[in-house]
Amino acid sequence: MEKESLAKPFPCQCLRSKEMYHQADGHAEDLYTSDAFWCTKTLENFGPDGEAADSLECGPGRRCYKG
What we know:
The chain is low in regular secondary structure. The chain has a two-stranded antiparallel ribbon with strand order 1-2.
């Protein structure tokens, strides 16, 4: 039996996080580990559609998604 791929889609290109600008020494270089996200379209913690901007929500299912 084959295992299903559980890879999540890459977040929107407009999603930003604190780790994109600052990485603490000795921590993995995951750009989406924090809880501090914002959208470059709105410059707020929500997207143009009014929904939350974060690594789980900003995916291909959103009408404002830019892949």
